[in-house]
Each structure stands twice: as structure tokens, then as C-alpha cells.
Design goal:
This protein has about 575 residues and is mainly α. Helix content is about 70%, strand content about 5%. Helix 12 runs antiparallel to helix 13.
Length: about 575
């Protein structure tokens, strides 16, 4: 083939690749718009479901008559939630955002539809019937599931499915709080764990559409209707730094109490439903004296921002709410920790601001300003997402004047929190069960690709009794540098390296009697089609081999394909170029 013909073919291939990339980008943009609408409608429906269950809970409480019987309402609610989680959807247990992070990092962005739908119902019921959990976790998981399902239905590559999961979560958060910018940052900081130009555009589209669609459905209703707060200037900044320090310590307590209660409840020998009943009873009894610590917590946040609670109530909420959130989830409940973190921080900030106003000889800003900063600071310390924490309180309250103290308190809170606990409240759940998350861009790229995408059946398999001299001839004639050794029933027995084969034949006195089995490396790392390429890449780095065997599944040694070092590197470079174009 002439050089000019080769050049024409290469240009044609490049043009085709560019058209393919453009088509995929357009599909992603269109799905992002659909994601915004679907997530907005799903969030609106979830809120309606919570209201419906709450009406049932109120009516049930009235039927009980006597006030001292009211704790039975959360008991019944927790038992029903425990049944849903135990029988219909085990994945509905606990707070759901860690499951989304895990799916994006380690499970090819596959999110179980049935499990998420069960969690949606269970979380709505748990919130409405007195659980100390919030809506953000369930709606973020719901939006992420929609993105995952859309991407897999459209048969998009795994990295684009991951991007659509981020779009779904961003749209859900934006719709939940009417905060499109916070939705974008949440998806980038928490779910996708990356922020670049290639990913931001579809995420922004989905977030804006989600917030706009829900705004139309809600008819102008706002989550938090609070006045504009003022910032007293540089003289007050040290107070907000101290508040950030306190929020960091309290965020550590929130995380510690949550997972400590998980451990304690697992040790109780009272059964799954016994745990749920016990948790519901404790919630109900405490709710008689401190109802501000139960439910979805938005009313608690608003009341704190408006100064409706006294000092004792705010201190009690700041201390008790982290315990009740952990109690709800460890007892078999379902829901999010995002809103409880905000409510805890708001109560801490409100109490701190009120104390400053009473103790200090000069006038300070309204306690509500400290409550806003406290909500962002504790959320940042627990979730380790400073931009999300700052922007979400600014967007939902409309208070831009206190941006400087928000930033100072959030940063201090994160620094303090990380001293005691390395992982966020979401990642720690995954760490505790042995999962790891990839952070480096190149490592993440390899983790997004799978063995089945690069494996090939272009190899020459030989039987264990094949003469070594014949393998040497095949290597010269066919230009092969490896030979899988396979039994007649397809079982992998080892791999023969052509380079080592020549050395063995040359050094052996009985070269004529050597077989493939004699020359093969029997202890070989076995890949499966569903493993990511990161594992294959690491194995190639540890071994001087040109190919790795791919077997049917983890329990089998039946050879189905091989992955060559050259094919893996070629696919890796292609994927790098491809992602730079999208």
C-alpha cells in the first residue's frame, strides 16, 4: 500500500471518529435535558409522597388519642420501613449517596432500579413518620438511577454513563433546593469527584433544567423564606472562625455517632424488627419533648434562621439530632444525612450567635447569620464538599453578603474534621466495608474501562503435550510471542512466552522431549471480562508478559480470550484522545 493511500485511510478514520464523538456528545446533551425534566418530576413526586405519608401519620396519631401514645407512630413507621428494606429492597438500608459513589467508582455506574424505587418509598415513609433523616440522599440516588438507566439504555460508553449519573444527581439536588449551581457542584465534588470542562456542560444543562422544571411545578414556593442577613465586617470574622472550629468538632461527632451506632445495633440480639421497634420508640419518646429534631428538618432550619427557638432548644437540637439521625439509620431506617447535617449546623450557629450577643460587650450580627454559616460549615466538615456547602446555603437563603464568613468557617471546619476522620460521612461507609475509590485521573480512566472492551480471541492456543519445537516454529512462522496452553475441554493450564521458549530450548539437553506444559507459566493472573482495566494494567506492570488470559468467570479456568499489553495501551491512548474531544 502506498504512503498516500495510507494517509487517505488515516484521515478517513479520523473523520469518522470525530463524527462519532460529536454524535455521542449531542446524545449526552439531549439526555441531560431529559434528565433535568425527569429528575425534577421525580423530586416533585417524592415530596408529594412524603406529604401523603405525613398526613397518614397525623391521622394515625389522632386515632391514638392520648399524647403519651404518640411514640407508637414512629414505631409503626420504622417497622414498615424495616419490612420494606428487609423483604423488598435490601439496598434501601441507610443513606443512599454512598451507594451512588460506589456505583460510579467501582460498578460501571450500574444502579439497581428496583432497589432505588424501594428506597424512595421507604425513605418517604421514614421521614414522614418521625425518622430523623432528610430528603437529599433519596432524591440524589433517584436522579442518579435515572441517569444510569438512560445511559445504559442508549448503550453509551461507561465514562458517558458515569457523566449521566452526575447529571441526574445534579438535577435532583437542584430541583430539591431550587439551587442549580449547588446541584452542579454537588455532582462534581461528591458524585463524580472531578471538575473539568468536559463534564461540566451537560451537568449544568441538567441542573438548570431540573431547577426550572420544578420551579414551574411548585409555583414559586421556596424552601427557606428568610430575611437578608448582614455581616459585621472584619471585626466579626474571628467569631465565624471559632464557629467553623466548633462545626468541625461537631461534624466529627456526627460521623462518629452514626457509624458507632451501626456497630452497636449490629451487636444487639433482638432481631431486625426488634431493632426497628426500639429505634422508633426512642425517636417517639424524644420527639415528645424535642419535635424539632425529627422529620425532614427544613422547619427546624427555618425556625433557627428566623430566631424562633430559645437557646436551650438550639443546643439540644445540635447535640441530639446527630444521635437521632444515627439511631434512625442504624435501626433499619432509610433517608439522607444532608438535611440533618444542615439542621445540626444551623442550631449550633444559632446558639453560638445568641451566646455571643449575650456575652460580648459589643453588638454582633443577628443569630440567624451565624445559623446560616453554621449550617454550611458543619455540612462542609461532614460531606467534605466546601463549594456545595457554601453555594447551597447562599442559593436557598439568598444571602450573598455573608460569603466571606461562610468561606472561612467552611474551610476551618473541614481542616478540623480531617484531623480526626480522614474520609467524609459518605466515603467512610464504603471504606468500612472494604471498598476503595480511585482519585487520579489516569487511574480513574483505566477503572472506567473493562476487560471485555479490549480482550481478543486472536491467539493460537496449544495443548499441554504440544512439542516445544513446534511452538518455536509457530512463533517464527506466525510472528506470535505467546501461546495459551489449553486442555481439550478449554481449561487454561498456563502461558508460554516465545522469548523464554527459545531460551529453554537452547539451555535444555533434552530439548526434543519438551512439551508446552513444560515451558508454560502455570501460576498466571486470571482476568474476567467484567474486571476493569486498572487490574490488568497493574498486573502488566508487575510481570514481564505480553498477554494475560481471560477466563469465563472468577470460579472458572475456561479460557475465552486474552488481553495483550499492546491492545491495552492502544485503547488507553485512544480513550485519552476521545475524552479530550468530548
Amino acid at each position: 500500500m502506498s504512503a498516500s493511500s495510507s494517509s487517505h485511510i488515516e484521515r478517513a478514520r479520523k473523520a469518522w471518529a470525530d463524527r462519532s464523538v460529536l454524535a455521542q456528545a449531542l446524545v449526552v446533551m439531549l439526555i441531560a435535558v431529559v434528565m433535568g425534566i425527569a429528575a425534577g418530576a421525580a423530586v416533585f413526586g417524592f415530596h408529594a409522597l412524603v406529604r401523603g405519608f405525613h398526613i397518614l401519620a397525623v391521622k394515625g396519631g389522632r386515632l391514638l388519642g392520648a399524647p403519651y401514645l404518640m411514640p407508637l407512630v414512629p414505631v409503626v413507621g420504622m417497622l414498615i420501613v424495616a419490612w420494606i428494606v428487609k423483604v423488598l429492597g435490601p439496598g434501601a438500608y441507610g443513606h443512599g449517596i454512598p451507594e451512588v459513589i460506589s456505583a460510579v467508582a467501582n460498578k460501571r455506574s450500574r444502579i439497581n432500579v428496583a432497589g432505588v424505587l424501594c428506597k424512595t418509598v421507604a425513605s418517604a415513609l421514614c421521614i414522614a413518620w418521625g425518622g430523623a433523616v432528610g430528603k437529599v440522599g433519596p432524591v440524589a440516588q433517584l436522579g442518579s438511577m435515572l441517569g444510569s438507566a438512560a445511559g445504559r439504555t442508549a448503550r453509551l460508553p461507561s465514562h458517558l454513563v458515569k457523566l449521566l449519573v452526575g447529571c441526574g444527581s445534579a438535577a435532583a439536588i437542584a430541583a430539591c433546593f431550587d439551587a442549580p449551581l449547588a446541584g452542579v457542584l454537588f455532582a462534581s465534588e461528591v458524585i463524580l469527584r472531578k471538575f473539568d470542562v468536559e463534564t461540566i456542560v451537560p451537568v449544568v444543562i441538567a441542573s438548570v433544567v431540573g431547577a426550572s422544571f420544578t420551579r414551574v411545578l411548585k409555583g414559586g414556593e421556596v424552601s427557606f423564606d428568610v430575611p437578608e442577613f448582614t455581616y459585621g465586617g472584619a471585626a466579626e470574622l474571628p467569631l465565624f472562625v471559632v464557629l467553623g472550629l466548633l462545626a468541625g468538632v461537631l461534624s466529627v461527632f456526627f460521623i462518629w455517632s452514626l457509624y458507632r451506632q451501626y456497630d452497636l445495633f449490629r451487636k444487639l440480639r433482638i432481631g431486625w424488627y426488634g431493632r426497628a421497634a426500639l429505634a422508633g420508640l426512642i425517636l417517639g419518646v424524644i420527639g415528645l419533648r424535642l419535635p424539632e429534631a425529627l422529620g425532614v428538618n427544613y422547619g427546624t432550619i427555618t425556625g433557627t434562621l428566623l430566631g424562633r427557638f430559645d437557646l436551650g432548644t438550639m443546643i439540644a437540637v445540635a447535640i441530639v439530632l446527630p444521635l437521632l439521625a444515627g439511631l434512625t439509620l442504624s435501626g433499619g431506617g432509610s433517608g439522607g444525612v444532608f438535611a440533618p447535617c444542615m439542621a445540626t449546623g444551623a442550631a449550633l450557629g444559632g446558639a453560638f450567635g445568641m451566646l455571643c450577643g449575650r456575652v460580648l460587650p459589643w453588638e454582633v450580627s443577628q443569630p440567624g447569620a451565624f445559623a446560616v454559616v453554621g449550617a454550611a460549615a458543619l455540612l462542609a466538615g461532614a460531606v467534605r464538599a466546601p463549594f456545595t456547602a457554601i453555594l447551597i446555603v447562599i442559593e436557598v437563603t439568598g444571602n450573598h453578603a455573608i460569603l466571606l464568613p461562610l468561606m472561612a468557617a467552611a474551610v476551618v471546619s473541614i481542616l478540623v474534621s480531617k484531623i480526626f476522620i480522614t474520609d467524609s460521612i459518605y466515603v467512610l461507609k464504603l471504606t468500612n466495608r472494604g471498598e476503595t475509590l480511585t482519585h487520579h485521573e489516569e487511574i480513574g480512566l483505566l477503572a472506567d474501562m473493562y476487560v471485555e472492551e479490549v480482550m481478543t480471541d486472536d491467539y493460537i492456543a496449544v495443548t499441554p503435550d504440544e512439542p516445544a519445537s513446534r511452538l518455536a516454529e509457530l512463533s517464527r512462522e506466525e510472528g506470535r510471542d505467546f501461546f495459551p496452553v489449553v486442555t481439550p475441554d478449554g481449561t487454561f493450564e498456563g502461558m508460554v512466552s516465545a522469548r523464554e521458549l527459545v531460551s529453554v530450548i537452547r539451555d535444555s539437553r533434552a530439548a526434543g522431549g519438551l512439551t508446552a506444559k513444560d515451558c508454560a507459566h502455570e501460576e498466571h493472573f486470571l482476568l474476567t471480562p467484567v474486571q476493569d482495566l486498572l487490574e490488568a494494567f497493574r498486573e502488566f506492570g508487575m510481570r514481564d508478559v505480553s498477554a494475560l488470559p481471560v477466563v469465563e468467570d472468577a470460579d472458572s479456568r475456561k479460557l475465552v480470550a486474552v488481553v495483550t499489553r499492546g491492545d491495552l495501551l492502544a485503547r488507553y491512548r485512544h480513550e485519552q484522545r476521545l475524552r479530550k474531544r468530548i
